[in-house]
Amino acid sequence: MTDSKYFTTTKKGEIFELKAELNSDKKEKKKEAVKKVIASMTVGKDVSALFPDVVNCMQTDNLELKKLVYLYLMNYAKSQPDMAIMAVNTFVKDCEDPNPLIRALAVRTMGCIRVDKITEYLCEPLRKCLKDEDPYVRKTAAVCVAKLHDINAQLVEDQGFLDTLKDLISDSNPMVVANAVAALSEIAESHPSSNLLDLNPQSINKLLTALNECTEWGQIFILDCLANYMPKDDREAQSICERVTPRLSHANSAVVLSAVKVLMKFMEMLSKDLDYYGTLLKKLAPPLVTLLSAEPELQYVALRNINLIVQKRPEILKHEMKVFFVKYNDPIYVKLEKLDIMIRLASQANIAQVLAELKEYATEVDVDFVRKAVRAIGRCAIKVEQSAERCVSTLLDLIQTKVNYVVQEAIVVIKDIFRKYPNKYESVIATLCENLDSLDEPEARAAMIWIVGEYAERIDNADELLESFLEGFHDESTQVQLQLLTAIVKLFLKKPTETQELVQQVLSLATQDSDNPDLRDRGYIYWRLLSTDPVAAKEVVLAEKPLISEETDLIEPTLLDELICYIGTLASVYHKPPSAFVEGSRGVVHKSLPPRTGSSESAESPDAAPSGGQAAEQPAVIPTQGDLLGDLLNLDLGPPVGGPPIATSSVQMGAVDLLGGGLDSLMGSGSGFAPAPSTAMPANLGAPLSSGLGDLFDLTSGVGTLSGSYVAPKTVWLPAMKAKGLEISGTFSRQVGSISMDLVLTNKALQVMSDFAIQFNRNSFGLAPAAPLQVHAPLAPNQSVEISLPLNTVGSVMKMDPLNNLQVAVKNNIDVFYFSTLYPLHILFVEDGKMERQMFLATWKDIPNENEAQFQIKDCSLNADAVSSKLQGSNIFTIAKRNVEGQDMLYQSLKLTNGIWVLAELRIQPSNPSFTPVPVPFPTFLAASFLWVGMSCVALTHLSVYLRTCCLPALAGLPAVAGFGVVPEMPSTGGVPVHLPSLRNHPEELRCCCSPSSSSSPFPPKEAGAGPVCMSPFLPAKEPAPGNVPPAPGPWKPVLPSLVGLG
């Protein structure tokens, strides 16, 4: 008899019976009782009252009974933590059992019992099991480390289990290696900052060796780990690919997709000229095709992944079109996905085959599928220009079928074909108008109205056709109403004498009788345009429209690169990054493909991963001030460094919509965005790239003066060889509150350039052109023109990496070109950045101590007054100044355009000729230490972020401003340069400057008779006891704290 009998009992009072049976002396009876308990627990009955009786059954040699008891323990230990301690001794004993199965079972169960009291007893048994002689025990213990880390991460680190886990990667047993990799990967995902999987060629070689021998799940873990590795060169990438390729023939589809992920990633590093590159492309196709012979659910997952692969590398499957032809018994979700891939693979070589197949689909009985098939015919026409005429002919044949939904979809599609190929296929309009009465779907009606309005001069009775739509204006959908309004205005501008009454009627309906704000606003705009300037109205409404792009549904290139790194996961099925659907995804790391090397396509993205597969985070979200905080701290504000040429790479924008409105208005052609070439900076551009503090002191060859903001010298942003003869150089400046981009456009081509336009991608501070790019005359060959483009900060905001990165698109009559540059941060310093003194002190005192950033500027020959004056020219305002032992201290504030405040202390060490026997002035050292924090301001609803130094003795003694919270005094770490007197570590200097006799303090002294006092949060309020004097500071190192959330 089977175990199902245990689930059929309905007796009452069985708890007492089970209790008696559990305490029976007969082993078989005890085993039966435990099975009954597990059955009751499985169906949801509460059998926790039997906990002590079940635990007593642990002392047995019967493996089956022991497994059942352990299962019970895992379920009820959390609700009975005190009782669970009773089982600890048995666990410890079982971990030393001669039977490896029992040892592994014990350590696995202890890892699954999420009770803090038990975890501390788990450490010793786990340590022994990690070094057990039996590989089965070791592999179980490896997974247990990951479970224990999830319960108590600090305990795992303190006990050294992570190091032991790393050692297991070198284990002789492949399954132990696989489980160690799986455990480390799990831990690394929850702690992205910890570099646990520190992969190198030696460890990669061990993983590849284990790959051939472990189970399918072990292979998946190892392949996923390999995908996070960054080979040092193309030779290593090819070697890894060669050893991973055999996994493509594995029977498990998950192993195949994981292998495809590794190969797709490392192919980026292989030159297309290599013979091996072509061989790899051929090897990738068969396993992907084989996946389509599985059951429908697996087919769908495979198709979603193939969709990504085809967008990235269509050449892999360009000869496999037939496998994507739809079968009669395919589910609808498989059919639609196959249809999408067919369009992506369509080319001039196979378009006839594709069109014949699509025409067949359009006669199916499934309405949704037929609609998609008709749309697909239109997409083929737009994608393959040579097939457009054949596609239009096919659509006309479908219209002749008079099937209502087919006709309506065909009209929508033909409208798009008209947009792509104007003045080419208008002969079909008569056929479309014949089917006007059968249109009942809003999208089809709107498309037909657009066609009538756009080609009104070719349709004799256009006014009658539009008037027929106008009769039921208020019953139409908003989409149709808006299209009808625009179409009638177009008709009026083309035939003003015949349609004046019609346009007045539609404007009245739209503005007076409608409650839709969009319709009403558009009506008023047209009304005012027509009443004030009909010529301008004609230029606006009848302007030449940009051609629609070939592929409107392609995934944005940066996102596509990230999704390729997630092939075989849910992200590849949803076509969304994990951060979009994983709640609380602190462990989700943004990934990207490695930069392509060894070929002419070496346009590297500026946010490509530097090493180890840990890609830099892609700019994906609008940053809060808290998000910007860490990036502001990590900006390179050090002095400019000369050296070899610094290459900055253009951003490969693909079909990305830069400002939410598309670049179609700039392009004037139907082509999509092309990959932008990389832009190399000359060697003398090192200084402007740093955007550092040194720039503000004119330590480079800038053109700043004492009375104005610093302006960096112009540098080449886009060389002529990368932009078909157009060279763009420039710089940024801020004058009288206005930011400008000063450009020099040089035509080094042999043809005239005209029709210039410019657009910025979303960026961290919302920089955007405040006016169009005005080039008043065509730019002749070998001619240059200087332009000052005004900028504002009201554009779309998106966090960039680095923070001051700006991506630019420039269009002319030849093409659209892209480049990226770094703008200096000081152009964002606003003129009202001077903080009132008492507010400065109160703010300073309330700032926490842990967020400190320090920078040092050498070879600055300016004195304190000159420094203060020069910085004020860049809107960095001095609040107070004092002198301590010959060094000048400046306390300053500034404010960024987005409302972020910065507080700073600047120390200036004057020349000291005694350091050298030769009468040459010793280089002046200038150090600034910064601290960024966030705090809520009184009577404000937003957060302001402040920056301050680690030490401010001169501000002590001032009363705190009411409203800001009191921060408890706390000690601070070192961080002041060693060659400067450390006020933090020498309280006597503080007492001196705070006493009533200290005349150097810029702030009001204490009341007469009061002793010295210290209100600095960095220094003790009383004199330290003898023997507790802080030691002298050690060597100075800049402190760059991590991001601080402004919760």
Automatic annotation (TrEMBL):
<dbReference type="GO" id="GO:0030131">
    <property type="term" value="C:clathrin adaptor complex"/>
</dbReference>
<keyword id="KW-0653">Protein transport</keyword>
<dbReference type="InterPro" id="IPR008152">
    <property type="entry name" value="Clathrin_a/b/g-adaptin_app_Ig"/>
</dbReference>
<dbReference type="InterPro" id="IPR009028">
    <property type="entry name" value="Coatomer/calthrin_app_sub_C"/>
</dbReference>
<dbReference type="GO" id="GO:0012505">
    <property type="term" value="C:endomembrane system"/>
</dbReference>
<dbReference type="GO" id="GO:0006886">
    <property type="term" value="P:intracellular protein transport"/>
</dbReference>
<dbReference type="Pfam" id="PF09066">
    <property type="entry name" value="B2-adapt-app_C"/>
</dbReference>
<comment type="similarity">
    <text>Belongs to the adaptor complexes large subunit family.</text>
</comment>
<dbReference type="InterPro" id="IPR026739">
    <property type="entry name" value="AP_beta"/>
</dbReference>
<keyword id="KW-0007">Acetylation</keyword>
<dbReference type="GO" id="GO:0016192">
    <property type="term" value="P:vesicle-mediated transport"/>
</dbReference>
<dbReference type="InterPro" id="IPR000225">
    <property type="entry name" value="Armadillo"/>
</dbReference>
<feature type="region of interest" description="Disordered">
    <location>
        <begin position="586"/>
        <end position="618"/>
    </location>
</feature>
<dbReference type="InterPro" id="IPR002553">
    <property type="entry name" value="Clathrin/coatomer_adapt-like_N"/>
</dbReference>
<dbReference type="GO" id="GO:0031410">
    <property type="term" value="C:cytoplasmic vesicle"/>
</dbReference>
<dbReference type="InterPro" id="IPR016024">
    <property type="entry name" value="ARM-type_fold"/>
</dbReference>
<keyword id="KW-0472">Membrane</keyword>
<protein>
    <submittedName>
        <fullName>Adaptor related protein complex 1 subunit beta 1</fullName>
    </submittedName>
</protein>
<dbReference type="Pfam" id="PF02883">
    <property type="entry name" value="Alpha_adaptinC2"/>
</dbReference>
<dbReference type="InterPro" id="IPR013041">
    <property type="entry name" value="Clathrin_app_Ig-like_sf"/>
</dbReference>
<feature type="compositionally biased region" description="Low complexity">
    <location>
        <begin position="598"/>
        <end position="613"/>
    </location>
</feature>
<dbReference type="InterPro" id="IPR011989">
    <property type="entry name" value="ARM-like"/>
</dbReference>
<dbReference type="InterPro" id="IPR013037">
    <property type="entry name" value="Clathrin_b-adaptin_app_Ig-like"/>
</dbReference>
<dbReference type="InterPro" id="IPR015151">
    <property type="entry name" value="B-adaptin_app_sub_C"/>
</dbReference>
<dbReference type="Pfam" id="PF01602">
    <property type="entry name" value="Adaptin_N"/>
</dbReference>
<dbReference type="InterPro" id="IPR012295">
    <property type="entry name" value="TBP_dom_sf"/>
</dbReference>
<keyword id="KW-0813">Transport</keyword>
<feature type="domain" description="Beta-adaptin appendage C-terminal subdomain">
    <location>
        <begin position="829"/>
        <end position="948"/>
    </location>
</feature>
<feature type="domain" description="Clathrin adaptor alpha/beta/gamma-adaptin appendage Ig-like subdomain">
    <location>
        <begin position="710"/>
        <end position="820"/>
    </location>
</feature>
